[in-house]
Amino acid sequence: MTNKALRILIADEQHFQRMKIERLFNQLGYYRVAPVQHLEELLTLVEYGCEPFDLVVINAAMAAGSLDLRGFLLDNPQVRNALVFNDTLAQFAPMSISGQKTIQVSTAVLPDLKGIQRLMSTVDPLVRANDDLTMRYQQKMG
Questions:
Q1: Contact 34, 10 (CB under 8 A)
Q2: What CATH number corresponds to the domain at position 137?
Q3: Beta bridge partner(s), residue 105
Q4: What is the 3-state secondary structure of the chain?
Q5: CA distance 77 to 96
Q6: Phi and psi dihedrals of 112, rounded to 5?
Q7: What range defines the domain where residue 89 resides?
Q8: Is 65 among the domain residues?
Q9: Which of 20, 53, 64, 115 is the most buried (most CB within 10 A)?
Q10: Who contacts 8 (Cβ-Cβ below 8 Å, separation ≥6)?
Q11: Contact assessment for residue 119 and residue 104, using Cβ atoms and an 8 Å cutoff
C-alpha cells in the first residue's frame, strides 16, 4: 500500500530520463509526480509551492557549479526528502536529519526500481508500516 498523496519532484535535463524515473514511481503506485527540465523550474516550484515536496529526485549534474545542492536540500523546509543521482563526485554522504529528512546520494546515472523501492520505504509512512507488519508476521511465523 502506498500513500498516493505524496508529492514527488523529478529534475533532470533529459526528457527520456525524467520519463523513465517517473514511470518507476508510477509502477510503485505514485502518480503525483512533477517532472522539470531546468534548475530554475525546480527552484521556482520548491520556493513558491503551496506545500512541501515529500521527495525531490535530482540529477547532480543540473546543479554543478551553480547551486550548493547540499545546503539547498538540507536547509529548505519545502523539501522533506531527496535523492541525488549521477553524483560522480560523491559531493556528500547519505544522511538523515533528526529522523525527519533523508538525503540519499547515488553515483548511478539513473535510479533503478529496487533503489526507488528502498528509498520509498523510508519516505512513505504507509510503506514503512507495511514493511514493519510483514517483518513482524515473518518473525511470528518463523
A1: yes
A2: 3.40.50.2300
A3: 84
A4: CCCCCCCEEEECCCHHHHHHHHHHHHHCCCCCEEEECCHHHHHHHHHHCCCCECEEEEEHHHCCCCCCHHHHHHHCCCECEEEEECCCCCCCCCEEECCCEEEEECCCCCCCHHHHHHHHHHHCHHHHHHHHHHHHHHHHHC
A5: 14
A6: -110, 175
A7: 8-141
A8: yes
A9: 53
A10: 25, 30, 32, 33, 34, 53, 54, 55, 56, 57
A11: yes
How many structural domains does the chain have? 1
pLDDT by residue for the chain (142 residues), tens only, comes to: 789 999 999 999 999 999 999 999 999 999 999 999 999 999 999 999 899 999 999 999 999 889 989 889 989 999 999 999 998 765 555 555 555 788 888 889 999 999 999 999 989 988 765 555 556 656 676 6
Please report whether residue 2 resides in a domain: no
Q: Is 64 a member of any domain?
A: yes
Evaluate if pTM is beyond 0.90. Answer: no
Residue with cell 550548493: 68
